[in-house]
Write a structure and sequence with these properties.
Layout lengths: L1 E5 L8 H16 L3 E4 L5 H12 L4 E6 L14 E5 L2 H11 L2 E4 L4 H15 L7 E4 L6 H12 L12 E3 L2 H10 L14
Parallel strand pairs: 1-2, 1-5, 2-3, 3-4, 5-6, 6-7
Helix pairs in contact: 1-2, 1-6
Length: 191
């Protein structure tokens, strides 16, 4: 299975976040899954790649060509795909992935997650989406989404479009156990 991992590129964060990303990459590789990611060498992106590499996993990096400078990209990807734009990068990641895991990150990670969640709500895909809530980093986003549903800005059924997991092992298990037939993505958009 190809699993797309979104996450921070920053190294200026608590090391426990990076260690959890390394464990996620390792766990994916141990289960025979391919890591698809933004190609970065640092932060949680780099951590996931190092973990997958440690367990001899396949790693597909997808990055815009303007990132190919100054050691920004992970140098030992099984395959590196260059795009011209960030938009093209996200499209390729979506197309190549069988599921998505959002690890802690900033606005780029949020943007990737919310786009893939919106596309699922609109019925454009029915792939598993997991929030890896390392150190409760995403508690506030989960509360925001809950409040969004409670206040009627999205249907409460949209809360079932993703799962929230505390550990890399739970995240991989959630992707593997996902049943697309159990999630009806029709009629979820408030028009």
């Amino acid at each position: 299975m190809n699993i797309c991992v979104y996450g921070a590129a920053s190294e200026e964060i608590d090391r426990r976040y990076i260690e959890a990303a390394e464990e996620l990459g390792a766990e994916m590789a141990r289960h025979g899954h391919t890591l698809i990611f933004g190609g970065g060498a640092w932060g949680l992106m780099g951590g996931a790649a190092r973990g997958a590499e440690r367990e001899n996993g396949a790693i597909i990096g997808i990055a815009p060509r303007f990132f190919d400078t100054n050691d920004i990209l992970f140098p030992r990807c099984t395959e590196m795909i260059f795009t011209e734009t960030m938009r093209e990068r996200k499209q390729l990641m979506e197309n190549r992935a069988d599921g998505f895991i959002m690890t802690p990150g900033g606005i780029g990670t949020y943007e990737e997650f919310f786009e893939i969640l919106t596309l699922k709500q609109l019925g454009r895909h029915n792939k598993p989406i997991v929030i890896l809530n390392t150190l409760h980093y995403y508690d506030r986003i989960c509360s925001l989404l809950q409040g969004t549903a409670e206040d009627g800005f999205m249907k409460k059924a949209c809360l079932s479009l993703y799962s929230v997991c505390d550990t890399p092992q739970e995240a991989v298990r959630s992707i593997e156990q996902y049943d697309p037939n159990a999630v009806d993505v029709r009629h979820l958009k408030n028009l």
